[in-house]
Specification:
Blueprint (H helix, E strand, L loop, with lengths): L10 H4 L9 H15 L1 H7 L18 E7 L10 E2 L1 E2 L6 E2 L11 H14 L14 E8 L6 E7 L7 H11 L5 E6 L11 E6 L4 E5 L2 E5 L9 H12 L11 E6 L5 H12 L4 E7 L2 H13 L6 E5 L2 H6 L8 E4 L8 H10 L3 E6 L2 H13 L3 E8 L9 E7 L1
Parallel strand pairs: 6-7, 11-12, 11-14, 12-13, 14-15
Antiparallel strand pairs: 1-2, 1-5, 3-4, 5-6, 7-8, 9-10, 15-17, 16-17
Helix pairs in contact: 4-5
Bound molecules: S-adenosyl-L-homocysteine.
């Protein structure tokens, strides 16, 4: 564990790693303390202490996804297209040649997209006028595979010199296995649009978590720190009891994305010769399609069923005892009172709540406690070293 601090020439302006000047062991202590305070009441009510935070041994190069915005060059850049990071709280772009927390080589690919585009006179998108072509680029690098997916986001379907663009990028970066054009012609801050066109390779990449293979498309949600995601998923899954008599148990994976947690759980149960049926519920239909393919690729399609629905609506349509356990992993806003009320009325024995925003999680835990659940374990995981973010896994049972 590092006592060392790291320096980055653009740390102050970029603002992505706001804790970079704090030694990593001290960052973890602060996060532990923050979680102790946040969960103080929960801990007092259920007579428990927050588990020690799970940190990283090496807290650098952990982000396997990197992105850049593009903007037209100016006199200050010698006319060269701008790329890098948005300066904190603005849309001014700070150039970045190498980022400490990103997987090695990812930033170089992004910078070369700008360089090659300049050579071919492909114009960057000018946000203020809504004109131009290149808006963003996103690189995803496999953690357990050598797959590298580059997504080039354009304003509209036209990408001039697409073929030469791809050829030159591949020559500079033979490690690229997929290049996709994503079209985003809306005046929005969202990076990605919904339409994709494959320019090179199979259009998707694959990565592995806990021995399971997952397909990742240009618009799929996939955790950015795979090493710590394995820690997080293992902690979530190990809390789920298996029926010792061998009776089939049913697990609901709510807000399941591409089905990663449910599939890892089904596979882990299989290894222990237990029978676990998984129902995954997810709002985004592309992700549901991905989840179904992922279940097939991991030979658990008999055990995993995925439903495209709002989690709250799905919950409302279920009968008591429909599931034995629930894992939920909602977005930062947390879950809804109705979903939580649904959990209470379905009355699963166990609930595992994975959260990327412990503040909304604490709010939601109060509803589950009122419904008869007790908190058994609270485990913080550091998915984003050098930032203030903390993920938490909370186990409850009734
Ligand atoms: N468990 C997955 C995804 C977590 S991110 C993983 O670890 O990869 C949260 C997911 O919730 C996203 O995929 C998002 O599309 C989905 N989501 C957001 N609102 C939802 C809702 N109301 N109902 C169902 N899913 C929702």
């Amino acid at each position: 564990m590092g006592y060392k601090t790291y320096t980055c020439p653009i740390a102050k302006r970029c603002g992505g790693c706001e804790l970079l000047a704090v030694p990593y062991d001290l960052q973890l202590k602060r996060k532990q303390q923050a979680m102790k305070e946040l969960f103080r009441e929960v801990c007092a009510q259920d007579a428990l202490a927050v588990d020690p935070i799970r940190g990283m041994d090496v807290s650098l190069a952990y982000r396997h996804k990197a992105a850049t915005p593009f903007a037209p060059g100016s006199r200050a850049t010698g006319g060269r297209m701008r790329c890098g990071f948005y300066e904190r709280g603005t849309h001014r772009i700070v150039y970045c040649k190498e980022c400490l927390v990103e997987a090695k080589g990812a930033r170089r690919i992004l910078c070369d997209v700008a360089r090659v585009a300049d050579e071919l006179h492909i114009p960057a998108y000018a946000e203020d006028r809504g004109r131009g072509v290149l808006r963003h680029a996103v690189v995803r690098m496999g953690y357990a595979t050598h797959d590298v997916l580059l997504t080039i986001v354009t304003n509209g379907t036209t990408l001039p010199h697409a073929e030469r663009f791809v050829q030159r990028l591949r020559r500079l970066h033979p490690e690229l296995t997929v290049i996709v054009q994503n079209v985003n012609d809306r005046r929005t801050n969202a990076i990605l649009g919904t339409r994709n066109r494959t320019l090179f390779g199979p259009g998707v990449m694959h990565d592995k978590l806990l021995g399971c293979t997952f397909e990742i498309g240009p618009t799929s949600f996939y955790q950015t720190n795979p090493a710590q995601t394995e820690v997080l998923y293992r902690l979530a899954i190990e809390g789920i009891d298996k029926d010792e008599a061998g009776n089939p148990e049913t697990l609901l994976d709510a807000y399941c994305g591409t089905g990663t947690i449910g599939i890892c759980a089904a596979k882990a149960a299989e290894r222990e010769n237990c029978s676990l049926q998984v129902i995954g519920v997810e709002l985004v239909s592309n992700a549901v399609g991905c989840a179904r393919r992922n279940a097939r690729a991991n030979d658990v399609s008999e055990k995993c069923r995925f439903v495209c629905s709002d989690a709250t609506e799905w919950m409302a349509s279920q009968q008591r005892s429909a599931v034995d356990a629930v894992v939920l992993d909602p977005p930062r806003a947390g879950s809804t009172p109705e979903f939580l009320a649904g959990v209470v009325s379905l009355a699963p024995k166990q609930v595992v709540y994975v959260s990327c925003n412990p503040a909304t999680q604490v709010r939601d835990l109060a509803t589950l406690r009122e419904g008869g659940y007790a908190v058994r374990r609270i485990i913080p995981v550091d998915l984003f070293p050098h930032t203030k973010h903390v993920e938490t896994v909370v186990h409850l049972s009734r």
